[in-house]
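Usage

Read records sequentially. Each one opens with the input sequence:
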Amino acid sequence: MDNLKQICFPAPGMCIGVTCSKTLTEQLVNTLTDGWQAYRSPARGYHDLLNIAINYTAVNTSVQEEAMPSIPLIETSYQNNRLVIGLYGKDGYATQHGIWVNFFGQMIQVDHYSRFQAYLEVRQGRPVNPMSPSRRGVIKDEALNRLCDFIRDSLFEHFSRTPIEEIDPLALMQFYHDYPAQASNLPCFVAARRKRYESGDDVSKMTSLFAPQVMSYENSPLLLADKARVVREDGTAYSREYGLHTFFELTGAAYKVMEADESRLDIRHLWWKPGEQIQVVNGCPQIFHKAGHWGLGTDQEPPTEWREINNHVVFAFSKPNNWNVGNVDFTVGGAEPQDFYQTDAWGGFDPQNGEGRSREEMSESYRESCEREIRNLIGNAVPNNFSWDDLLRFVPEGEQIIAVTPEYKSRRKHRPAGVILLLSNDEMVRLSLF
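and closes with the structure output:
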């Protein structure tokens, strides 16, 4: 008290004068006012209680951004104190500090693992009990348990009463993660529409989805399990990881369940019964069939109704490959073999690998393997847009190409069906075009 001095003019609030070194002064001012350090300032949180200035520079007293939910969902009152509840992150990540308490201006992080985040601004009463004397945390007691229960129940009420079209799908998915028992009683769940396979897509797009949607249990669309069931000639069935998306022109819009109480849903399994095998020349994989029939059943029970597949190419497999199409365990229905290796066979190409190969190197190898299968089917052949490298594969070592002559099926045709190579040893090599 001996160091307190009375000033000769009135001043609002409280003014503290301190004499110290210039270095300490600069450090103190920077701690409270510098932009990149401001989030650590002990003044943060007093926004509605104090106006603070140091050396005539205003100090930021707002609540730091990290204490507030990234996606606010609910603003309510808890024991007459403001409470904001929402998602911790826009990408659905969890946080170790799922609750922040602003206790009369002092910001306190609460150790509470969650994908949601709550901000409680205490301005009256004692809804939680801060640790004394430092208030470095909150005591884990019944008061904290009651707050956690209130947050959970508020979220349940939000998802129960909010119109489906207004519910954030990511938030609902996180509620299913954090509170599965309560989520199972909600009237809604999350699903995503499966994208159709586009000819030429690689395996990374074989299971693509549109953005998740919130849906009602009472009015759910066609829900399909991930794997297709394929029926062998002897009647036994096996599952295939990929290929389901080649059937969506037949099934219509189909959805994948993202988060739900699956016991309340009728999730169907697509079954495919390929037709008789199509014989191809010896040395080619015997993977081609007539299109056959498809239907919807369960994991173990086949469909009660089978539908014929007309004018449609479908296929299924489980083992993609990044080097050789021959290593993909395809079962193909309704495709012309040569056309398949030019287009849909790329569905089995896996651009991911752990062997240090570049995508370009893998793509080239896979393309060459597809062309090799085409040559097995139709004999020596090169692509329509062939390069010299394509032609030189058919030239014996030490020989040269003297002439390249197009070959037509008839005089009426404008596009050649093949080319004839005249070699330096006077031999001719006929190559089909594909």
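Summary fields computed downstream for this record:
- The first strand starts at residue 53 and ends at 54.
- The mean pLDDT is 88.
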